[in-house]
From TrEMBL, chain A:
Membrane topology, record value: Multi-pass membrane protein
Gene3D superfamilies referenced in this protein's UniProt entry, alphabetically: MetI-like
InterPro entries for the chain: MetI-like (IPR000515), MetI-like_sf (IPR035906)
Alphabetical UniProt keywords: ATP-binding, Cell membrane, Membrane, Nucleotide-binding, Transmembrane, Transmembrane helix, Transport
Record-annotated ABC transmembrane type-1 domain positions: 84-274
Organism: Fictibacillus enclensis
Chain segments annotated as transmembrane: 24-44, 83-107, 119-140, 152-174, 195-216, 253-274
UniProt-listed PROSITE patterns: ABC_TM1
Protein's name in the database: Sugar ABC transporter ATP-binding protein
Superkingdom of origin: Bacteria
UniProtKB/TrEMBL annotation, chain B:
Assigned GO CC terms: plasma membrane
Protein name: Spermidine/putrescine ABC transporter permease
Lineage, uppermost ranks: Bacteria, Bacillati, Bacillota, Bacilli, Bacillales
Subcellular location(s) of the protein: Cell membrane
Domain ABC transmembrane type-1 intervals: 97-311
Family listed: Belongs to the binding-protein-dependent transport system permease family.
Membrane topology: Multi-pass membrane protein
Xref: InterPro entries: ABC_transporter_permease, MetI-like, MetI-like_sf
One GO biological process term: transmembrane transport
Length: 290, 327
């Protein structure tokens, strides 16, 4: 601040200022964490309250008594078990499709030389710029012509034809495999198919897991697809089921919130166990964009 | 069945023949051809998908937008009538376009700025920083109907958490989803909660900024403020650019939030949550006017395309690509 020379007071020293700055940032982060986590806490605490306690003002932060039975009752009020099994089935199929097909295509773009490759890859990237909603109506017309309405095919089959973002992600990883390694495998008599499956896939396991997790999240949380294609309540997924459940129980928030917690639980568990793979996906996207 | 000996002999002969082959070029050429063929084999799933699930349907819907197609019976050519109706005879079309532009204009800059700020905070060397990163990222993985239901509860005018918290500061919170003035801000608040997803992208790029630059700036006595605006921001412009392009496209897709958080997707109070896609959805799947809905879809496509092209054009002027980076 001052231009004159003098011995710095303790609060003017670098180390003090640095400490102040750190404490300030720490304070902000703790404050922010409370803000971020409070909705999650609110969901859990509401799910354990009685309807009377939810309606009272001012609201309580801690349930007076934990109504664990809310969970059982909410689950039994609607065919949630059936919906959960449907969702698991679709999700497993979509994840398999995404992992196998996108890594296959990505290997082609990363490690095989052919004419027009760069042009085609630009085309892959440019499809990411088409808003999904623009595609929704024409795809619906196609799938209804194929009589796929009210089946899982419109939800599963497209996963076996590649996804631009996943192809891009995996290609970035596959490119890091040295060409010498591929050449060596070729000399040993392996063809590209074997190299992809036996060399590239195991080598790039973290990337493959990243794609698996991201596509798990996408399929588990997919609302639009099932809303559009599934009419039969027995075939509903959890997302559509939850939306229907909202209509059934109206404003019984203790049931709505306990069902919501259960629907989100698998996603939360996977997030905590596989966090680093989410971060991996972001790293590659930010590091190579431009 | 031939014996192992015979087949070995045959292979040896074939090998000798190869060596003796006068035109070596031919072999190289055929190898290259095989490489090309396997290249196309590998990308064929995507190629087929692109033609059958993207390009074909897209072109078909362009045609449909000039007809009165209703999936079951009609498909007569009606010229530009759908487009004409859209621009001149459908007030809700303009309402929905306005609602969507409002949402995009506020949510994109706010989430981008929020994500950058958060990433800078989370890029400090502070004990427990990894735990903080996990906490802030968590909302980004939570999505779908459960989260919308949660926010309906949080934004409840009298007993919701948001208005309760505001009342501690003496602020009387609005009715959020029940007040047409506040429905869109309510969705923007909800979007801000999951700003951690973008944060992670920026964090990764912040960690790539070389320490040497900050050290040099320290020697010159630059303030933290100056360092942020003259080193940090320019170095992460490629990610900002990517984020803006993708979140702009994403912003125009807003639908589910409005569909779930209003009564059966009716557009909320005074149609204040009738977003473009919701209107398109109602046209396509409530009254099955596929021609009209296709016209809407194509108009949306054009808007997004134009905005993306503008982005790309302007991007050249402010995006800084550091030397040595892979483009």
């Amino acid at each position: 601040m001052s231009t004159r020379q003098h011995t710095p007071k303790f609060y003017e020293t670098m180390s003090f200022r640095r400490k102040m700055k750190k404490s300030f940032v720490l304070f902000l982060l703790i404050l922010g964490s409370i803000v971020i986590l409070s909705p999650v806490w609110w969901m859990i605490s509401t799910s354990l309250k009685t309807p009377g306690e939810i309606a009272q003002y001012p609201p309580s932060f801690m349930p007076e008594s934990f109504q664990w039975s809310n969970y059982v009752k909410a689950w039994q009020t609607a065919p949630f078990t059936r919906w959960a099994l449907n969702t698991i089935f679709i999700t497993v199929c979509v994840v398999i499709g995404n992992v196998v097909v996108n890594s296959f295509v990505a290997y082609g773009f990363a490690k095989i030389r052919f004419r027009g490759k760069n042009l085609l890859f630009t085309l892959v990237l440019s499809t990411m710029l088409i808003p999904g909603f623009v595609m929704m109506i024409p795809q619906y017309m196609l799938f209804s012509k194929l009589h796929w309405i009210n089946t899982y095919l419109p939800l599963i089959v497209p996963a076996f034809f590649g996804n631009a973002f996943f192809i891009f992600l995996l290609r970035q990883f596959f490119k890091t495999i040295p060409d010498e390694m591929i050449e060596a495998a070729k000399i040993d008599g392996a063809n590209h198919f074997q190299i992809w499956w036996k060399l590239a896939m195991p080598l790039m396991k973290p990337a493959v897991i990243t794609v698996a997790i991201l596509s798990f999240n996408g399929a588990w949380n997919d609302f639009l697809g099932p809303l559009l294609y599934i009419n039969d309540e027995k075939l509903y997924t959890l997302q559509i089921g939850l939306q229907t459940f909202k209509g059934t129980v109206q404003t019984q928030w203790h049931y709505l919130m306990s069902a919501s917690v259960l629907v989100l639980l698998p996603v939360i568990l996977i997030f905590f166990f596989f966090q680093r793979y989410f971060i991996e996906g972001s790293n590659i996207t930010s590091g190579t964009k431009g | 069945m031939e014996t192992a000996y015979e087949s070995a002999k045959k292979r040896k002969q074939a090998a000798q023949k190869d060596i003796a082959e006068p035109v070596k070029k031919y072999r190289i050429k055929s190898l290259r051809k095989r490489e090309e063929l396997s290249g196309f084999l590998f990308i064929s799933p995507w190629l087929i998908g692109f033609v059958a699930l993207t390009l074909g349907p897209l072109l078909f819907s362009l045609y449909v937008s000039f007809t009165n197609y209703n999936i079951t019976s009609k498909m007569d050519f009606v010229g530009t009538q759908n487009y004409h109706n859209m621009f001149f005879n459908d007030g809700l079309f303009w309402t929905s376009l306005w609602n969507t532009l409002y949402f995009v204009a506020f949510s994109v800059p706010l989430t981008t700025a929020g994500a950058i700020l958060l990433a800078v905070l989370l890029n400090q060397k502070i004990p427990g920083i990894k735990v903080f990163r996990t906490i802030y990222y968590l909302p980004a993985v939570l999505s779908g109907v459960a989260v919308y239901l949660l926010w309906m509860q949080l934004l409840s005018p009298s007993t919701g958490l948001v208005n309760t918290a505001l009342s501690w500061f003496g602020i009387k919170g609005p009715a959020w989803l029940f007040d047409p003035e506040w429905t869109k801000p309510a969705l923007i608040v909800m979007k801000m909660w999951s700003v951690g997803g973008g944060m992670l992208l920026y964090l990764a790029s912040l960690q790539g900024v070389s320490k040497a630059m900050y050290e040099a700036a320290d020697i010159d006595g630059a303030s933290a403020f100056r360092k942020f605006f003259h080193i940090t921001l320019p170095m992460i412009t490629p990610v900002i650019f990517f984020d803006i392009v993708t979140s702009l496209i994403g912003g125009f897709q807003i639908f589910q939030e409005a569909y779930v958080m209003t009564e059966n997707g009716d557009g909320g109070p005074v149609n204040s949550l009738l977003f473009y896609n919701l209107h398109m959805w109602n046209k396509a799947f409530e009254v099955f006017d596929m021609g009209y809905a296709s016209a809407m879809a194509w108009f949306l496509f054009v808007i997004v395309l134009v905005l993306t092209v503008i982005n790309l054009k302007f991007g050249k002027h402010w995006v800084h690509y550091g030397g040595g980076d892979e483009k």
